[in-house]
Structure formats: structure tokens, C-alpha cells
Amino acid sequence: MKRYPRRNRRMPRRFPPNPNKRTMNRNPGQPEEETPEEGLPEEPKEDEIEPSPEDPDALAETEEQEAGEGEEEGDEEETFDLEAQIELFRQQIEEEPEVSAHHYNLGEALMELGDKDGAKEEFERALQFDADRSLHSIIHFSLGELYYDSLISGIQSTVVKSSVGLHSAHKPGGSITEVHDDDYANPIREYESALQHLSHLKADDEFVQYISQNTPQRISDAYYKWGSDLLDKSRQIQLYGEEVPDVKQALRYFRKTMEINPHHSQAKLMINYAKKMLREGWQIYDEYGFVAKEIPGSG
After folding, report:
1. How far apart are CA 268 and CA 262, in angstroms?
2. What angle do CA 235, 241, 243 make, to 5 degrees?
3. Is 0.70 topped by the overall pTM?
């Protein structure tokens, strides 16, 4: 058995809180920095003076200080940044409850935090307030990611990739015994909606490029996962009577994967395995080496 890898799902930076607002002073209540008069060079501050390259001790000290500052900043950002962003997004929603981007941003942050239910609610609110559908594409993409992450977090995260054969030893609980279609259809539906609304997406080019390049791969992965889980289900130790139909359905999903991504090497391999299973049949052995289940082939 081989664990299905989680994907790196990081999207580009979130949308700005409100692109129509521009804050000139980031620290209200404090005076703006004075701009030096035109034509007069600004006098450097003491901590901005660069050490002379002829002074190696000064250079070494400066590098150590910069390294220390970088570590401190990284630690603080890792510890506080997500919580601070969530609080900021909630405040923005209080001020402008019908701005779709605020709900999308909060949903993304909650998903990073692991609050999938809260993230789903915010994404659905974002769709509700996105009247012109200018953000529908990216919201549907994030919903697809949420559904897919939920799919691979349970027993379905363990799938057969390269160990599928005609003979296999199983222990009870060691394979998938149920495959619920909605678990796979939901992310595929959201990804397809992301592509359908892509032409209406009003966002930076990096968002448009990210969705257009990654969504087809996401859909092909979901079909591959669906087929792999059906194949694994057919190899469970209990005889449930739908083994052959499940393998045939798995074969269709592997072919669908190849239609979307012709270079999907694992799907190509699984197509050959599924064909062989249907042609020759397969046996499942229990942990003691006895045949627990035998499925005849079509010859």
C-alpha cells in the first residue's frame, strides 16, 4: 500500500481588503514621515550606514545581526500572522459584510487554520455576494481544494498505486471498504466550475494563470483517486458482490484521467492492472496465507 501524496495547494497572495481604498498612513495617529526637500540628499541614519568592505569584523557583525533579525521576524510571522489575518478579515466583514473578497479571504485563512466547516461557510457567502461572478472562479477552486483535502484525510488517503496485482494479502481494516461517489464528485464539480467562470475572473494575472494551469491537473487527480479507491475496494477481504462492476468503473475513471492528462503515468499503469484483473480474475489472501476471496476473470 502506498500513501496518496497531499498536494502543495498554496495559492497566490490573497485579494487586497478593498482595492478601492488606499491608506496613506499605515499607523493612524502617528505623523507621516517627512519627505526630504527636492535636490537635497537625505542624511543616512546611523543604522543604515553600510560597513566598509575593508573592515571584515564589521561585515561579520552585520551579517550576524541580519541573520538574527530574519529568524526573529520569521518566528513572529509564523506564530502570529495567521491569527492576525483572521482578525483583520473579520473586522473587514463587520465593516463591509457584503464584500465577496472579504469572505473569500477569511475562508482561505480558516482553511489554513484547519477549520474546514468555517471555511466552507465563508466560501459560500463569498459566492452569494459575488453578484457579477467576478470572483466565482477562484472561490469554486478553493471549494474544490477544501473537498479534496477532506477526501484524502481519511482511510481514502491510503490507496494502491504500484502494489495492485492478482494476488494480495490483506488484514481486516487494511483497505477501503466503501466509496461514496459524492466525496469525489464534489471536488470535480467545483474545479469544473472554476474553469467555467475563469473568463469572468477579475484578478491579477497570477490568479488567472494559477487556476488555468492547475485546475485540469486537479480534476485528473480526483478521477485517478476515484478509480484507485474503487480498485482498492474491490480487493477488500470480504466478498460483497460488486467487485467486477467496481473495477470496470475504475477503468473508466483511469481513462478519464488520461484524457485530461495524457502524461499521467500512474493512470496508464492502473489501466493495465485493471484490464488484467478483469481478464484473469484475482485472489485475495488473508493474513494466514489462505484464499479469502476469489474473483473469476472473463478469460
Report:
1. 9
2. 35
3. yes
